[in-house]
Amino acid sequence: MQVLLAGATGAIGRPLIRALTANGHQVSAIVRNPDSHPLVRELGAEPITADVLDRDGLLRALDGACADAVIHEATALRDAKVQRRIPADDPTGLLRTVGTANLLEAAGLVGAGRFLTQSLILGYGYHDHGDRPVTERDQFGVYNGGVADEVVRATVAGEDLVFAAPVDGIALRYGLFYGPGAFSDLFADMMRKHSPVGPLGSGGVNSWIHVDDAAAATVAALERGTTGRAYNLADDTPITWREFFGEVARSHGTPRPIRLPAWMIRLAVPYIGALMSDTSMRISSALAHEELGWRPRYASVVEGLAAH
Questions:
Q1: Greatest CA span in the chain, whole angstroms?
Q2: Exposure of 113 by Cβ count < 10 A (0-12 exposed, 13-18 middle, 19+ buried)?
Q3: Rounded to whole angstroms, how far apart are CA atoms 2 and 22?
Q4: With 0-12 CB in 10 A as exposed, 13-18 as middle and 19+ as buried, what is 210?
Q5: Residue 9: helix, strand or coil by DSSP?
Q6: DSSP percent split of the chain into helix, strand, coil, nearest 5
Q7: CB-side exposure of 242: number of CA atoms within 13 Å?
Q8: Helices H, strands E: what count in the chain?
Q9: CA-CA distance, 209 to 244, in Å (whole number)?
Q10: pLDDT tens-digit profile, the chain (308 residues)
Q11: What are the backbone angles phi and psi of residue 170, rounded to the nearest 5°?
């Protein structure tokens, strides 16, 4: 297929270009900065300079272009700052809402009949989901009036836009990313410089996915995914935040984070408290295994970090 990719230089974008081209797909990559053109070409894609949040500029840049599918992987996580709350104008939130709407319009312009969008397992809600694996049959978009509701709202809104559009829409509910350029590198860098904090207890349980596995799953969904479907995509081994920080410190040779009581983290940075202490979920990717023929190469964070 001819694929139009947004978010080409992010943590998942780079391995995704490689995975797409390895399967014979041709990729046009939307990038904001022309300085990224050499990297994009080196990865195997043809760059197009545009800002996903600038509707008119995006459509002008794509005038005359053709594509069979659009993949929306654009986020602003690389530039994210630790903040007490997630505002309504959070850049990643805007990319999930305004950016998705603009890319859907772009899909119509370039003739794309298939649209894959990045979603997030945290859209199931920032609370304790218990020991039962969370599947796509569980309610998506659970709000509790807390500081993380804006993340849930934007994630749900992005999916709704895609499913309501006249395209073959698919939502990819990724686990938390780790691997090159993702959370593990970010936390390792913070641990080298600033001794970040972690929960005094084990912290909530969460499900992760290596960026290479996320890329492979995305290609599988592009080729074999069912229209109107959302797919959970995570590895086989949910872990606590204490275990995650420990593995990152071990694999990157950094000090472990300072451990503080959960109430203190909630008070200082409520969103981090909601994520690390209040949220526990064990994600099932059985539907993706069955329908996409995809299994993670790295069954656990331990395996994935050891490989790098």
A1: 56
A2: middle
A3: 13
A4: buried
A5: coil
A6: 45, 20, 35
A7: 11
A8: 13, 13
A9: 12
A10: 999 999 999 999 999 999 999 999 999 999 999 999 999 999 999 999 999 999 999 999 999 999 999 999 998 765 444 454 566 778 889 999 999 999 999 999 999 999 999 999 999 999 999 999 999 999 999 999 988 999 999 999 999 999 999 999 999 999 999 998 887 787 777 777 665 555 555 678 999 999 999 999 999 999 999 999 999 999 999 999 889 988 888 888 887 776 766 756 676 677 878 888 889 999 999 999 999 999 999 999 999 999 87
A11: -140, 135
DSSP run (H or E) holding 232:
strand 230-233
Q: Return the amino acid letter for 179.
A: G
In the structure encoding, which two tokens stand for residue 109, read together?
A: 């312009």
Where b means 16+ CB within 10 Å and e means fewer, 133-166 reads: bbebebebeeeeebbbbbbbbbbbbbbebbbebe
Tell me the two tokens of residue 143.
């709000």
DSSP for residue 258 = E
